[in-house]
Amino acid sequence: MEQGIRSIGILGAGRVGTAVAREALKARFEVRIATAKPVEDIALIVEIITPGALAVTAAEAAQADLVVLALPLHKYRTLDSAALAGRVVIDAMNYWEPTDGTMPELAGRGSSEVIQDFLAASHVVKTLNHIGYHELEADGCPAGSPGRRALAVAGDDPDARGRVLAFIDALGYDAVDAGSLAAGRALEPGTEAFAGAHDAAGLAGALGRHAASGAGSAAAA
Ligand SMILES: NC(=O)c1ccc[n+]([C@@H]2O[C@H](COP(=O)([O-])OP(=O)(O)OC[C@H]3O[C@@H](n4cnc5c(N)ncnc54)[C@H](OP(=O)(O)O)[C@@H]3O)[C@@H](O)[C@H]2O)c1
């Protein structure tokens, strides 16, 4: 397994969480899924929608080699920061006003930076937010395929970023290193990178143009 990654814990069993679960299972990872509900409430749905994955508690999901946050952004304060301490945590969440309402803490900041503040002892890495859940299952293909779709990876810890880059490649996507978590603002809704599908060169170009525009603090680490 890539960089010693064997298990993926997913917090959220909605559209994104279950799509990531199915793709991770295809790539032969061990997948554990949790929501805020008791395990018995999601066990049957997990068995039917993501056969091969294990329904677990959020604390158990947090013990996986990589943990994916796939819950509505405004619910981030319901996460157990102690359980996630020391873990590599992929933030696949986006701010979506009709769902998330007003979140004053996002003013002038990237949403993943806010998550990193909350999960201060975790290594937060932003990716998987800029692909639709339905595309995630359709667009992946083996390394070296012509025009392979790319996804960018942003995070402040180089080792954590490296592990997530390997995971993204295993899921079937070229992985583009976007640098720091602040640089990950270039992946948020409304950006060129967020809109549409890009190959690695196209995505790198979009990230570069975002940085050059001075939007947010998009300078790569
Ligand atoms: N839809 C897309 O194509 C897409 C693509 C990329 C990123 N995103 C982003 O990904 C996030 C999830 O979107 P979605 O469409 O998958 O949402 P969704 O279908 O509403 O699913 C959200 C899931 O999160 C669970 N949840 C809530 N609080 C939780 C907690 N503390 N711990 C664990 N699970 C918890 C919910 O279960 P319970 O409430 O039952 O616990 C539910 O299973 C959003 O931020 C969205 O913007 C969406």
From TrEMBL:
Residues 8-95 form the Pyrroline-5-carboxylate reductase catalytic N-terminal domain. Pfam families: F420_oxidored (PF03807). This is NADP oxidoreductase. One of its GO terms (molecular function) is oxidoreductase activity. It comes from the Bacteria. Keywords: Oxidoreductase.
